[in-house]
Design brief:
Chain lengths: 116, 115
């Protein structure tokens, strides 16, 4: 099946700094990508929907100025956590929609963010 | 708002035994239902999905699920579990048409397989 990569797989940063996470669809074009957040032993919570060439749509309660999303190409979406704080520490997962025959969301392996 | 409930947080089965993971959903319209599996260090992998038609759907790795509207359930089954099936399993309901829709996930069921 289609492959979605995320980079980095884990990152540690100091409080107050910004961190960028990349999500790439490696063998298909994705007009829509999704960003999720997963707390330990909990479910995935959708943060935002990212459409190529337009502004992301954020879920209620998600600060769009803190979690900046850019989907500048059909194979790349980025999530930037600005002025990170320890409470932003989490597992961030992206998915990309392959709108072809299978019309399936493919998930990346996730990025573990730890803010000190 | 749609929601998904997975009542079992953790299940342990012996290798070769049958498996059933429960999933109940709440959604006002015809649901689009999914089962994903998450292994450590890997992304979520789609096992199967239900949009319409036959209520018994077959997926990859020998899994199947049955949609029961009257019970608002979409339970995942496998007749004989393999040790490699140990993972976290998530049921999800989609809002709108197709898998491009927003997904609401259950809290997951961790499957442990004993040899």
């Amino acid at each position: 099946g289609a492959v979605v990569s995320q980079h980095p797989s884990w990152v540690i940063c100091k409080s107050g700094t910004s961190v960028k996470i990349e999500c790439r669809s490696l063998d298909f074009q994705a007009t829509t990508m999704f960003w999720y957040r997963q707390f330990p032993k909990q479910s995935l919570m959708l943060m935002a929907t990212s459409n190529e060439g337009s502004k992301a749509t954020y879920e209620q309660g998600v600060e769009k100025d803190k979690f900046l999303i850019n989907h500048a190409s059909l194979t790349l979406s980025t999530l930037t956590v600005t002025s990170a704080h320890p409470e932003d520490s989490s597992f961030y997962i992206c998915s990309a929609r392959d709108a072809g025959l299978t019309d399936t969301q493919y998930f990346g392996p996730g990025t573990r963010l730890t803010v000190l | 708002a749609q929601s998904v409930t997975q009542p079992d947080i953790h299940i342990t089965v012996s290798e070769g035994a049958s498996l059933e993971l429960r999933c109940n959903y709440s959604y006002g319209a015809t649901p689009y239902l999914f089962w994903y599996v998450q292994s450590p260090g890997q992304g979520l992998q789609l096992l199967l999905k239900y949009f319409s038609g036959d209520t018994l759907v077959q997926g990859i790795k020998g899994f199947e699920a049955e949609f029961k509207r009257s019970q608002s359930s979409f339970n995942l089954r496998k007749p004989s579990v393999h040790w490699s099936d140990a993972a976290e399993y998530f049921c999800a309901v989609g809002e709108g048409t197709g898998t491009a829709s927003k997904l609401t996930f259950g809290t997951g069921t961790r499957l442990q397989v004993t040899l």
